[in-house]
Amino acid sequence: MPKINIVGMVVLCLAVFAGAAVLALRSTPKRVETPRVGRLIRLLADTDPDLRREAELELKELGKKAEPALKEAAEGSDPVVAERARAILGLKVPSKEKTSEVATTPEPPIRLTLQFASAPRRPGDAVHYYLRLHNNTKDPVAVARRRHGDRHDYRGFGFFERIDAEGRLVEIADPSPVDEDSEVEVVTLAPGELIDMFPGAGLLAIGARGTYRVRYVYDATETGAYRGKLTSAHHPGKPLPRERLESNSLTITTP
Fold first, then answer.
1. 78: domain range?
2. Where are the beta strands (DSSP E) in 36-140?
3. In sequence order, what are the residues at sequence separation of 6 or more whose Cβ sits closer than 8 angstroms to the Cβ of residue 55?
4. For residues 61 and 7, what is the distance between their CA atoms, to the nearest angstrom?
5. CATH number of the domain to which 56 belongs
6. Whole-prediction pTM value?
7. What is the DSSP code (8-state) at residue 247?
8. Packing angle between helix 34-43 and helix 79-89, nearest 10 degrees?
9. Which of 1, 15, 107, 230 has the smallest count of CB within 10 Å of its CB?
10. Is the dihedral of CA 225, 168, 50, 79 positive or negative?
């Protein structure tokens, strides 16, 4: 009889341990594709609305795989990411934090618009583009440019960025010639006025096979060439905001 009790106790212990293991496995959230989920969550705060929408769709498609990271982001310190994470999870947004898409991403007062006029046939091909700067403020603003006789070129104060499907960002060079010895001046852009950043269509080499999003950045930060020139020039216009002014991003495929 004692032997039977011992056997029964062993079986009972094994059953308890097995049940605890099952419960532990069930309660542990699966942290699947953490790098990908983290990249998508960071894109929820990107200035490009298309990139934000694509990130939201991918996170929704991942479903429960993305839930742990989304819940963490929903409680994070970044209010924009937190709000969009809660929206994806279907959680109620506190009334004091509720904002519409228009309220959170208003049209910038200084806007850059990028348009491609051609597509590459191979990696080495340069595409034609149009780049324009719009002053949507009620004040004249100061813009730096290079002067080539009767022609003006504003590109020397910014750069293009190429973003791949994994969110990796690379600066790409504009192959159009820039005369470094040309005169640099600061001019005034009137309220409601727009200018072509490059006279006619510029040329841009994407540089690699694949599908990318491309945008232009006019660097008006403290370390940019624009801010350095602005401090040494006299002009009636207001300075541009001390930030990176990003254009809309366009999708382009290099065969």
1. 34-104
2. 110-116, 126-135
3. 40, 41, 43, 44, 46
4. 50
5. 1.25.10
6. 0.59
7. -
8. 120
9. 1
10. negative
Residues 198-223 as b/e (b if ≥16 CB within 10 A, e otherwise) read beebbebbbbeeeebbbbbbbbbeee
What the block records as the tokens of 156 is 């020397």
138/89 same-domain check: no
| CA 8 – CA 14 distance, rounded (Å) | 10
Structure tokens that stand for 172 in this block: 């790409």
Same domain flag for 119 and 238: yes
Q: What six digits make up the tokens of 159?
A: 């750069």
The first and second tokens of residue 171, run together, are 């600066």
CA distance 112 to 195: 10
| Structural tokens at position 97 | 């934090």
Q: How far apart are CA 85 and CA 70, in angstroms?
A: 5
Q: Write down the pLDDT at residue 70.
A: 87
| Cα dihedral 75/80/84/87 (nearest 10) | 70
What secondary structure letter does DSSP report for 119? Answer: -
Task: Find residue 189's DSSP bridge partners.
Answer: 141
Domain shared by 51 and 117, yes or no: no
